[in-house]
Amino acid sequence: MSQWSPNVACTDENLSVNGIYQELKLPSLGRCIFTVTPIHGPTAAIFNVTSTDTGGIKFVRSEVEVYDSKPKKTNITSEAVHDIDTQFGEDGLKNIAKLLKGLANEDENEKTVKFLKDKAVDFGSVEISEPMSPDFTWREISWKTQQCILEMNSKKIRTYNAFVVLPYKYASAIMSVFADLRNSDLADSTSLYVGTSGLTDWFINPDSTDENCYVGLRDIKGTGKGCAVFSPYTNEITSALDPETGSTTMFIWNRFAITISPIHTTDNPMLVKFSVMESKISAISNKDIEEVVG
Q1: Fold observed for domain 2-293
Q2: What gap in Å lies between CA 28 and CA 17, rounded to an integer?
């Protein structure tokens, strides 16, 4: 057993997995569509300026509220990490790190979708005349999306960079249109990315039950023009003794915040949503015409 003692120490393996975990480019939906700004203290706020009805300027702010987080037990023990490391080396540790990153992203995606539902201003619906046609689906959802972006910039031009979060049901049609337009950098970093049209990036909603389309203004480099800010606080792997089993088990510790822009208002929004309706009048097929004529 002495020959294995240097490798059995769980600290080394956990630190190795955590290092790979931190380097992985597998961002959640929130990290893709919102401005990412780390929090450097226990409290924070987002500041901006906006014009008043009298022509003046005023400061506005939104308090950053960090989501409560409890360490997420993974059931991966130090013994399991040691065995995988011994048999597969760094390739095995990379697979573990990807699984752990996926678990962390699930929580971030869930809170991101809820944030979109709660904060987006309702912009009605769009009707798809031929839901079975990818071209019609793309054209009509794209038209409504651009209408939303122009409306959000009608009172004051902020930015035409934007994102769309598509419902699962219509994502396949949009993806087929973007078959030759995928941006390799974004496509490699997240599986939720669909494609880019002009200044608009398209993503898939990870919640398959949500049927809304969400459109928001986007500002990757700053907090002034984007609709919301994603603030990572702590995201790392830790190990602790599981009192139930007595084994050293790996836990994910992930704290973050999503804050709406202080200049987002109901009558002058920066984040909107619309539903998609399918036309009940379907096209008459050749067979139907023959039956009528006959």
Answers
A1: phage-related protein like fold (3.90.1690)
A2: 19
Give me the residue label for tokens 């961002």. Answer: 27
In the three-class reduction of DSSP (H, G, I as helix; E, B as strand; rest coil), residue 220 is classed as coil
* Sole residue written with tokens 């792997």: 237
Crossing angle of the two packed helices 134-152 and 168-177, in degrees rounded to 10: 100
Digits of tens for pLDDT over the chain (294 positions)?
333 334 444 444 455 788 888 888 788 999 999 999 988 877 888 888 777 777 678 778 888 888 887 788 888 888 888 888 888 888 888 888 888 888 889 999 999 999 999 999 999 999 888 777 888 888 899 999 999 999 999 988 999 999 999 998 888 777 777 655 555 455 545 578 888 888 999 999 999 999 999 999 999 877 789 999 999 988 888 888 877 777 888 889 899 999 999 999 999 999 999 999 887 654 445 455 455 455
Q: Where are the alpha helices (DSSP H) in 178-276?
A: 184-189
Residue ranges of alpha helices (H) inside 24-155 are 29-33, 78-88, 90-119, 134-152
pTM: 0.82
Tokens 């122009």 -> residue: 150
